[in-house]
């Protein structure tokens, strides 16, 4: 366990135990062959490699690519496609959308009218109450999926309820959780959200055993790690679902997995989710739209099509660190879902990279200059 | 999703191409525009410092602050003109001119000993002391025939950097 200094901020703590990014970055980092020979004015003045790297990052960088939504491709550009498209819009907004809203409302009514009594009246019979609440939550998620006409293909053996196992999946939108919850009532670890989503989180999801975290709190990591450990040990708890990327990514790439889920000492069962963007882009670009807007966009599209693969459970190999374990599982999920791996921490969406990387470049430069000064 | 809807017309593309002296092809300009719109989150017409600093690869670069001063708040035409020095079609002179501008932060047309020291400081950080930097720079300047009080002009830069060529190319990914 790294313990270099106790006063570092939490963001640099997050970075201290990352694998070396330089190992992943492609040829850009390898342009500079080891300079040698006597140091000249030319060598000090020539900042072109550094400038090229900076300009290269401005023109295109692998981090921003992970959060690019698909712009909707217009296909209604001529005389017969346009009326067809108009008809489609009419159908989607004025017929399908109200029907879906109605289905969802009916679902909520059924759910609440069963959930609230069960929750209040069966206080004494915990086991029975939990089973019923579990089935009710699964049913409600089914209603949600129906409200976007979700076409979900599940592959692989369904998750079983055993102690000492966690499930990890790649993350594209909050609907990932709903799609998986429809099949099995998972307990999930989520960022606490404001608004109506937060209300749902604190009432209904509480019953399936959810754990909240707050990205902005520095000390939060240890508290959450402890809660995770406690949950996994319990035999009667719902299986725990974790999204180790920590943020929504656009379903073409995966960002680095946080090691929290991989150092709990239990079996990790990977789940890969891949959305077919044919009708709608299910990526929730939280920078550009609120969750409500995102849901409305889904409800006014034709369908949400996706594949879910439940993959073979993995254990920590002897001699493997949790970070290597996390990267190995990320590789398994990315290969199955056809996603490219990038070496960035998803939290860089919210904070700046630690100065460690810049300092390493500075160190390389300084050492090279001082060494060449000695040469004759 | 403002990015895809604000399309460039052929006139716009030609105007931008004119402004950057035809150093980018029309397709590259279209791709640069998509990138510009992606970085400019609320379609203000320019990219703010914050938005540049949301690119982790850029933040990690030791010269990011200097470049930021040059590129902050530029509209698309000037943004392309700035990047044109990195085009493969740009001449060595244009590249050297950009390097000179990076050093000449007070824009007075000459680069002093102190200016070079400042850039060296960005590049070496806390891994070299100020005295070491002064000593190294003083020594290589003397060997090249300049004194510490000399001011370097663009011609001097061309002389020093010119003959071994400057490789400073960035490819615009065209999908």
UniProtKB/TrEMBL annotation, chain A:
It comes from Trifolium pratense. This is Uncharacterized protein.
UniProtKB/TrEMBL annotation, chain B:
It comes from the Eukaryota. This is Uncharacterized protein. It comes from Trifolium pratense (Red clover). The lineage of its organism: Eukaryota, Viridiplantae, Streptophyta, Embryophyta, Tracheophyta.
């Amino acid at each position: 366990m790294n313990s270099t200094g106790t006063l570092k901020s939490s963001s640099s703590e997050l970075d201290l135990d990352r694998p070396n990014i330089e190992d992943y970055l492609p040829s850009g980092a390898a342009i500079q062959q080891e300079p040698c020979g006597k140091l000249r004015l030319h060598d000090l003045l020539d900042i072109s490699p550094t400038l090229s790297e900076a300009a290269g990052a401005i023109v295109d960088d692998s981090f921003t690519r992970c959060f690019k939504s698909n712009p909707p491709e217009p296909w209604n550009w001529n005389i017969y496609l346009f009326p067809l498209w108009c008809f489609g819009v009419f159908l989607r907004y004025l017929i399908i959308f109200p029907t879906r809203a109605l289905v969802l409302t009916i679902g909520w009514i059924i759910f609440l009218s069963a959930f609230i009594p069960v929750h209040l009246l069966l206080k004494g019979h915990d086991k029975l109450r939990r089973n019923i609440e579990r089935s009710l939550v699964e049913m409600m998620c089914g209603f949600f999926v129906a409200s976007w006409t979700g076409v979900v293909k599940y592959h692989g053996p369904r998750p079983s309820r055993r102690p000492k196992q966690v499930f990890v999946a790649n993350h594209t939108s909050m609907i990932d959780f709903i799609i998986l919850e429809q099949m099995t009532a998972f307990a999930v670890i989520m960022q606490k959200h404001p608004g109506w989503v937060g209300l749902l989180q604190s009432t209904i999801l509480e019953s399936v055993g959810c754990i909240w975290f707050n990205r902005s709190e520095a000390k939060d990591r240890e508290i959450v790690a402890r809660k995770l450990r406690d949950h996994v040990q319990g035999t009667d708890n719902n299986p725990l679902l974790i999204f180790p990327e920590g943020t929504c990514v656009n379903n073409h790439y995966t960002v680095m997995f946080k090691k929290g889920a991989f150092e709990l000492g239990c079996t990790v069962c990977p789940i890969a989710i891949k959305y077919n963007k044919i009708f709608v882009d299910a990526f929730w670009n939280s920078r550009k739209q609120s969750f409500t807007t995102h849901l409305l966009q889904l409800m006014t599209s034709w369908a949400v099509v996706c594949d879910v693969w439940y993959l073979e459970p993995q254990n920590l190999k002897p001699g493997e660190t949790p970070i290597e374990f996390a990267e190995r599982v990320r590789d398994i999920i990315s290969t199955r879902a056809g996603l490219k791996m990038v070496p960035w921490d998803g939290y860089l969406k919210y904070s700046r990279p630690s100065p460690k990387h810049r300092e390493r470049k500075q160190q390389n430069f300084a050492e090279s200059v001082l060494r060449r000064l000695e040469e004759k | 999703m403002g990015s895809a809807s604000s399309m460039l017309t052929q006139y716009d593309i030609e105007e931008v191409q004119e402004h950057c002296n035809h150093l980018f092809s029309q397709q590259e300009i279209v791709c640069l525009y998509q990138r510009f719109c992606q970085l400019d989150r609320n379609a203000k017409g320019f990219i703010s410092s914050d938005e540049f600093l949301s690119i982790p690869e850029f933040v990690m670069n030791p010269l990011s602050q200097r470049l930021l001063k040059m590129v902050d708040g530029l509209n698309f035409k000037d943004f392309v003109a700035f990047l044109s020095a990195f085009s493969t079609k740009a001449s060595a002179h244009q590249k050297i001119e950009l390097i000179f501008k990076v050093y000449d932060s007070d824009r007075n047309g000459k680069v002093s000993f102190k200016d070079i020291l400042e850039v060296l400081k960005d590049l070496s950080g806390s891994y070299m002391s100020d005295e070491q930097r002064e000593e190294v720079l003083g020594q290589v300047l003397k060997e090249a025939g300049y004194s510490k009080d000399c001011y370097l002009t663009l011609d001097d830069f061309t002389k020093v950097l010119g003959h071994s060529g400057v490789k400073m190319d960035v490819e615009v990914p065209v999908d």
